[in-house]
């Protein structure tokens, strides 16, 4: 039974990767494909992926329960144990992967018409393919390496799509902000992975996802579990815009509407939740981490619920509304209601996607409705906090960004003072006249 | 707890700041000074602000989109001067980039002979003067305008010289005589080497020439910036606007919000400034950003001294050290920094009846007051950052020494244009080596007056000339069609250029019908509230503020109708609850649990929009629509808006009489007259209203058409009209209708009251319209890239229907794009003339208006609307990011008033690129079929129109009603125009001419199937 399942999953996960390879190679060669080809390829790749993963889900759901690790050989064997390409399939991972493929298929169809004749059409689809590959990587990952590659692809494509309109300054600087928060989250995840490998001697996520009993057998103490889980929570908080990182979420609305929809309404924002869901057994191992996750989720939900009420632009309003649900999903995971959390997450991803994609329709939707009689904010202070989005950005700036930038500047100055004597500073190239260089 | 501790500490730091003490002393001194002449200051300050407000974009709420001249404030100057001045003052583009005109030259959209004619006209007597002893001025100008000089300076220029074949080969685009003069006839074996040596020698000759003459000292063009922010950006790279704009936009968008946020801004009744003081005077406001440390103190000071908005502006200006002399420039800079938001504030201030929220007090000075408070806080912080300890009023002087000077031109940069001129004029190195100092100076002087801007201006004028003359010639050459003695039915449309194709096809489908057009509000200025509308909206040209309110009311009392209405309400209520509930934590969680259900509408609407448009159609045709009527008669009830509820019979008589007179239809009425308004319905399109009827102020003209038909059918109105000598035959019946220009649906109103003996005629007209819908869709789909060329008419109709329902479609239709002409005259002059959906058509019968009163009042109603549409498209196309609102893709609806780019940007005004991308930016050419003196008189009776015509914001010509002669209005008066372009005659219908053709199609006479037999 394993062989057909392995093939289904492989084709499902590889078809967006193939799309990325084709579109990316064509772009790198300076010969981007025409719109029609790109859209046909994208639709085919996502359809194949969705069908294969759905079949795998149906087949696997009927035939077996529990977790199965599918290995596709070594990626690199530069050291003992090597790096293998492994997928870990269970009901959650297959369902999430199939849903992601379906959603990405719809978004690809949407984007094809929405970005018709746009100069960045090709770039957009390359990034969307990268995102699809990364998302399926996160969903199906069987070891830390695959997870990390997927995680990075999602993060990179996300930041590049925020900066899609890079000819204006705002998207570029907001993309940088998004990227830097993602880096914090990446660093936390990498640290967790290294720590896990150090303690447990393996990079397989099967261990992490399989339950408390297995964790105890490899000598993971409660302190270790807490530290790893807390690092995971930081990673999740960065990716899913939980407190105190929520400030980047509205900034990410700079890209084209469908990319905002699929990342921050639907899939990317839930990637963190999904990761936490899968590491449930680890959380169960540590009460402190569980409490931290639950508390963070609840606080985020309360904060976002207040903030969404004062947003006067439709995309920010939807972004914070989505964040409210993400907070609740985290609470559900912390409480150990995995199935509830999963249903909540999947439903929310579909529902919010539709809302985001039809965000420009809000004037049409509200045409016949009197929206003027509204409720008042509880107080001026609450209103100010909500409208300033909890002052989170300026708080992070004051606590981290400014000191960090100061330190970097100081180091640069020190560098220059120490090395200036040895290495001459770069000089500007003189403007010269073509005639001076004769035949 | 930690939060409040922190803010307390921040506050202590502020108290210890020595700068604050000096400022406190300053405050007292200043407030004393202000108190002395507060009234004078604030009065003149208000006037200054009001004067500057004209520079702001005049776009109102986006759901009532009114096309207007983007540069309305500059209408008092001639067009070219105005666009060029505005380009500098507003930092925008006046014309297309030069390269675009060169593309048009290459493709024949601009003819070289038009360029030459214009250059000759502009140079006048000086055209034949000899420049640098070698070439005539006109030759030099024509060569430079037609071929251009690539602009390059600094490193770019040295890259071009080093890395491109610029110094190895002559320009590829040289005119033949120049090439012949330059290319040496020598060794055939080494032609390339020969050419390279010649080019190098020419380049060295040019370099030597400018070196000989020495550096040119032009007037130093440096103008000091006015705003502190500009000084800081220029000297230290600090942009305070980037700090203050996000919170300012958040607050302002919240204040102006028309119902998107659930919690409104507290204290809206206090005005923008008052409400701001309420919210931001607390210590927490210091956390708005790193820069905001002093914000709470500055705000609290305003609040404690009880300043109003204008007082606050005056106080801030003193604090900022802005003198009275520079006040206007300073405030201009402040207003233009976020011009979209400032503009919408101004629009709501001027026309509060156009937004639903009634309890907000919106003033431009309130906005400026808040803006300057933010600005002062940011400047305090910026001063600290750059280590400046004094008060911010001295900041600019302190920065003066650091202001960078603009560098002088190098010899290479000066030689570069000379090098190109020499090539274009066919002057080789030996000629250039002979140049005297005077010669070099004179060539440089010519090039200064023929800079890039001037070249673009000439090319643009030539472009318009080519396009315009083709249109004039078509009107001259087109043979007038004889008028049908007894038309089977008549149809009155809006003058919109999108109806040009619809009318043409309708006449081709049923040659015995007659079509007319007039401004699509049918002379009924009203606030209208449909049964499903939440708020009334004005339906008339923007210049008119309606007095009358008309409601659509339910008349259907059947149980079924009541139920279907209840269902409709329930659906609306449910939709709204999903909209609101999804943002609440628990409702949202509940909705999300069933969220996977939304995959169904998602896939249906996104992947198969055609299916969903079919489903909608099935629903519409199977579900009985409740019967409604317009309540037109004057009611005693007080109207919710306006002064009267409904019209009196006298008012109706005046309306009907005027429209029938304008159309010239009064004694030719056929048994059935369709009155067709138009609107456009599309999804996911914040600019939906921009596709609606311009004459209805960005509303849908159906209610106006319906009201007109109802009035004209009214026996009381007919009786009164008959007594005044305008008899409407008892057999004549009017039927109102609305065409959806997006999916080509035509909806008929009040069909149930059509008399029984008219039913068959109406059925015939409806059949003809059904065929027309398909054919018109077919012609329109020609311009959509996504439609395969082989699609037959029914498939194209299905395609446009799907477009209207497609969530992913940023171009549901192309709206007014490509509009360029306007014909005011009898249909006979344009019937059968293919104008490619580019011409506004206005029915006017010159033979029935000897004294020109009809023409004068019609021009007054029509010209502002069509000129507004045309100029808005012009500006949104020539500067899509500056005057237009850029690409639609990142647009984000905010406050239900407009769109921003992404999450926080200026409010983007103008048209999106997706609407204008196929446009050709030319000024409108209006041709009136009437004698010149009558046209001149009609124009002069209306000051605004006279100004537009005199300053050439549009072209005006008149066509002799009795002959083929045409005169164009020039500076010297009406000048006869001689036709030069031929007009092809095409057998068959319109599709025979347009089928298989891409892009713009020249006019043609469509002979029609009947004529060919």
In short:
Chain A has 439 residues and is mainly α. Chain A is 72% helix and 4% strand. Chain A contains 19 helices and two strands.
What's the number of extended β-strand segments of chain B? 24
Q: What overall geometry of chain B do the principal axes of the alpha carbons give?
A: globular
Q: Going across the biggest sheet of chain A, name each strand in turn.
A: 1-2
Global mean pLDDT of chain A:
86
Instruction: Name the beta content range of chain B.
Output: 5-15%
Backbone structural class of chain B: alpha/beta
From the alpha-carbon coordinates, what is the Rg of chain A to the nearest angstrom? 24 Å
Oligomer: heterodimer
The helical percent of chain B reads: 40-55%
Largest sheet of chain A: 2 strands, antiparallel
Largest sheet of chain B: 6 strands, mixed
**Count of DSSP E strands of chain A?**
2
How many individual helices of chain A? Answer: 19
Instruction: Give the distance, in angstroms, between the N- and C-terminal Cα atoms of chain B.
Output: 93 Å
Distance between the termini of chain A: 74 Å
The SSE string of chain A, one letter per element, is: HHEEHHHHHHHHHHHHHHHHH
Task: Report on the architecture of this protein.
The complex is a heterodimer of chains A (439) and B (1013). Helices cover 72% and strands 4% of the residues of chain A. In chain A, helix 3 (91-114) runs antiparallel to helix 4 (121-140), helix 4 (121-140) packs antiparallel against helix 5 (144-162) and helix 14 runs antiparallel to helix 15 (314-335). In chain A, a hairpin with a 6-residue loop joins strand 1 and strand 2 (83-89). Chain A has a two-stranded antiparallel ribbon with strand order 1-2. Chain A is built from 19 helices and two strands. Helices cover 49% and strands 10% of the residues of chain B. Chain B has 1013 residues and is an alpha/beta fold. The chains are: A mainly alpha (439), B alpha/beta (1013). Chains A and B meet through helix 3, helix 6, helix 14, helix 15 and helix 16 of A and helix 8, helix 10, helix 12, helix 13 and helix 25 of B.
């Amino acid at each position: 039974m394993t062989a057909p399942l392995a093939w289904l999953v492989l084709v499902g996960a590889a078809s967006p990767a193939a799309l990325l390879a084709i579109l990316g190679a064509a772009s790198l060669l300076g010969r981007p494909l025409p719109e029609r080809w790109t859209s046909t390829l994208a639709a085919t790749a996502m359809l194949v992926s969705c069908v294969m993963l759905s079949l795998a889900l149906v087949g696997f759901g009927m035939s077996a329960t529990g977790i199965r690790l599918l290995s596709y050989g070594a990626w690199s064997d530069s050291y003992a144990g090597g790096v293998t390409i492994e997928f870990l399939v269970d009901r959650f991972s297959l369902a999430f992967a199939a849903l992601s493929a379906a959603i990405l298929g719809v978004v690809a169809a949407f984007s094809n018409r929405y970005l018709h004749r746009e100069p960045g059409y090709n770039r957009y689809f390359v990034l969307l393919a990268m995102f699809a590959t990364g998302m399926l990587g996160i969903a199906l990952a069987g070891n830390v390496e695959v997870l990390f590659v997927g995680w990075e692809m999602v993060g990179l494509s996300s930041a590049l799509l925020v900066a899609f309109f890079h000819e204006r300054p705002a998207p570029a600087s907001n993309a940088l902000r998004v990227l830097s928060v993602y880096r914090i989250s990446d660093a936390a995840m990498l640290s967790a992975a290294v720590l896990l490998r150090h303690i447990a001697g393996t990079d397989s996520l099967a261990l992490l996802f399989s339950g408390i009993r297995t964790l105890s057998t490899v000598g993971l103490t409660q302190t270790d579990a807490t530290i790893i889980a807390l690092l995971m929570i930081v990673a999740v908080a960065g990716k899913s815009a939980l407190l105190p990182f929520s400030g980047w979420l509205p900034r990410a609305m700079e890209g084209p509407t469908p990319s905002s929809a699929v990342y921050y309404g639907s899939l990317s924002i839930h990637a963190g939740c999904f990761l936490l869901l899968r590491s449930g057994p680890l959380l169960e191992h540590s009460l402190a981490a569980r409490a931290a996750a639950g508390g963070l989720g609840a606080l985020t939900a309360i904060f976002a619920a207040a903030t969404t009420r004062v947003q006067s632009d439709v995309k920010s309003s939807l972004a914070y509304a989505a964040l409210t649900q993400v907070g609740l999903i985290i609470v559900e995971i912390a409480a150990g209601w995995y199935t509830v959390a999963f249903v909540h997450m999947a439903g929310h991803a579909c529902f919010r996607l539709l809302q985001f994609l039809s965000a420009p329709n809000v004037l049409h939707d509200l045409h016949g409705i009197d929206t003027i009689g509204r409720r008042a904010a509880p107080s001026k202070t609450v209103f100010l906090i909500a409208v300033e989005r909890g002052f989170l950005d300026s708080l992070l700036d004051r606590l981290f960004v400014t000191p960090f930038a100061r330190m970097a500047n100081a180091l640069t100055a020190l560098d220059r003072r120490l090395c200036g004597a040895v290495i001459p500073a770069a000089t500007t190239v003189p403007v010269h006249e073509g005639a001076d260089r004769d035949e | 707890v930690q939060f409040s501790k922190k803010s307390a500490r921040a506050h202590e730091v502020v108290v210890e700041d020595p700068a604050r003490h000096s400022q406190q002393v300053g405050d007292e001194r200043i407030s004393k000074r202000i108190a002395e002449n507060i009234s004078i200051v604030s009065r003149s300050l208000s006037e200054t602000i009001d004067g500057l407000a004209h520079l702001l974009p005049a776009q109102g709420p986006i759901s009532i989109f009114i096309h207007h001249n983007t540069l309305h404030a500059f209408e008092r100057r001639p067009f070219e001067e105005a666009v060029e001045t505005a380009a500098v003052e507003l930092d925008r583009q006046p014309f297309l980039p030069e390269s675009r005109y060169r593309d048009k030259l290459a493709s024949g959209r601009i003819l070289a002979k038009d360029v030459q004619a214009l250059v000759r006209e502009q140079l006048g007597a000086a055209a034949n003067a000899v420049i640098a002893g070698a070439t005539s001025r006109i030759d030099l100008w024509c060569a430079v305008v037609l071929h251009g000089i690539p602009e390059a300076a600094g490193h770019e220029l040295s890259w071009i010289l080093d890395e491109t074949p610029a110094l190895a080969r002559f320009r590829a685009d040289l005119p033949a005589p120049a090439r012949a003069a330059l290319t040496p006839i020598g060794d055939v074996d080494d032609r390339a080497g020969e050419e390279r040596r010649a080019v190098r020698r020419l380049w060295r000759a040019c370099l030597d020439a400018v070196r000989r003459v020495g550096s040119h000292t032009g007037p130093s063009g440096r103008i000091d910036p006015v705003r502190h922010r500009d000084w800081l950006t220029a000297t230290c790279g600090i942009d305070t606007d980037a700090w203050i704009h996000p919170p300012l936009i958040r607050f302002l968008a919240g204040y102006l919000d028309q119902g998107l946020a659930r919690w409104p801004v507290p204290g809206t009744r206090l005005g923008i400034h008052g409400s701001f003081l309420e919210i931001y005077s607390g210590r927490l406001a210091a956390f708005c950003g790193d820069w905001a440390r002093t914000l709470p103190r500055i705000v609290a000071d305003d609040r404690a001294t009880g300043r109003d908005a204008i007082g606050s502006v005056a106080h801030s200006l003193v604090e900022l050290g802005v003198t009275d002399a520079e006040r206007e420039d300073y405030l201009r800079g402040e207003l233009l920094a976020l011009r979209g938001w400032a503009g919408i504030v101004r629009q709501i201030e001027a026309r509060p009846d156009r937004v639903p929220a009634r309890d907000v007090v919106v003033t431009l000075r309130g906005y400026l007051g808040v803006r300057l408070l933010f600005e002062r806080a940011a400047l305090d912080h910026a001063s600290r950052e750059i280590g400046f300890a004094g008060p911010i009023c001295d900041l600019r002087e302190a920065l003066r020494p650091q202001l960078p000077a603009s560098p002088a031109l190098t010899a290479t940069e000066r030689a570069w244009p000379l090098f190109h001129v020499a090539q274009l004029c066919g002057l080789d190195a030996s000629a250039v080596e002979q140049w005297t100092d005077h010669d070099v100076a004179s060539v440089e002087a010519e090039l200064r007056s023929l800079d890039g801007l001037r070249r673009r201006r000439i090319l643009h004028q030539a472009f318009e000339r080519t396009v315009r003359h083709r249109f004039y010639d078509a009107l001259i050459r087109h043979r007038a069609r004889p008028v049908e003695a007894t038309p089977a039915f008549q149809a009155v449309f809006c003058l919109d250029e999108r109806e040009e194709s619809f009318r043409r096809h309708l006449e081709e489908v049923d040659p015995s019908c007659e079509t007319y057009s007039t401004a699509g509000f049918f002379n009924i200025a009203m606030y209208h509230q449909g049964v499903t509308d939440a708020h009334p909206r004005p339906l008339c040209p923007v210049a008119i503020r309606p007095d009358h309110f008309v409601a659509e009311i339910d008349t259907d009392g059947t149980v079924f109708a009541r139920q279907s209405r209840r269902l409709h309400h329930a659906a609306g209520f449910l939709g709204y609850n999903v909209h609101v509930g999804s943002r609440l934590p628990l409702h949202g969680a509940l909705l999300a649990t069933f969220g996977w259900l939304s995959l169904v509408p998602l896939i249906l609407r996104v992947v198969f929009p055609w299916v969903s448009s079919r489903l909608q159609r099935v629903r519409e045709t199977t579900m009985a629509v409740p019967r409604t009527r317009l309540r037109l008669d004057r009611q005693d009830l007080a109207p919710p808006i306006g002064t009267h509820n409904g019209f009196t019979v006298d008012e109706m008589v005046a309306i009907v009489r005027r429209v029938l007179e304008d159309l010239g239809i009064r004694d030719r009425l056929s048994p059935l007259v369709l009155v067709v308004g138009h609107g456009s319905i599309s999804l996911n399109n914040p600019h939906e209203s921009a596709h609606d009827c311009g004459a209805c102020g960005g509303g849908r003209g159906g209610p106006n058409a319906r009201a007109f038909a109802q009035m004209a059918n009214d026996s009381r109105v007919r009786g009164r009209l008959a007594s005044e000598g305008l008899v409407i035959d008892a057999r004549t019946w009017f039927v109102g209708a609305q065409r959806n220009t997006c999916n080509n649906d035509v909806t008929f109103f009040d069909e149930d009251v059509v008399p029984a003996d008219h039913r068959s005629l109406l059925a015939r007209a409806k059949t003809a319209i059904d065929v027309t819908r398909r054919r018109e869709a077919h012609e329109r789909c020609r311009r959509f890239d996504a439609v395969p060329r082989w699609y037959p008419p029914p498939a194209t109709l299905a395609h446009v229907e799907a477009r209207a329902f497609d969530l992913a479609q940023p171009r549901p239709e192309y709206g007014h794009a490509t509009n360029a002409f306007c014909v005011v005259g009898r249909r006979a002059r344009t019937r059968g003339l293919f104008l490619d959906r580019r011409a506004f058509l206005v029915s006017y019968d010159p033979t029935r208006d000897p004294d020109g009163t009809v023409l004068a009042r019609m021009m007054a109603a029509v010209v502002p609307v069509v000129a507004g549409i045309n100029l808005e498209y012009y500006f949104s196309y020539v500067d899509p990011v500056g005057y237009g609102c850029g690409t639609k893709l990142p647009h984000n609806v905010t406050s239900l008033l407009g769109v921003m780019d992404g999450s926080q940007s200026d409010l983007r005004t103008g048209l999106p690129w997706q609407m204008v991308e196929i446009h050709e930016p030319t000024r409108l050419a209006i041709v009136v079929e009437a004698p010149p003196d009558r046209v001149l008189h009609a124009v002069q009776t209306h000051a605004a129109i006279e100004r537009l015509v005199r300053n050439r914001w549009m072209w005006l010509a008149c066509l002799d009603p009795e002959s083929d002669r045409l005169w164009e209005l020039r500076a010297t008066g009406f000048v006869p125009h001689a036709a030069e372009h031929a007009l092809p005659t095409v057998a068959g219908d319109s599709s025979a001419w347009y089928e298989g053709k891409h892009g713009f199609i020249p006019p043609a006479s469509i002979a029609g199937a009947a004529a060919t037999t």
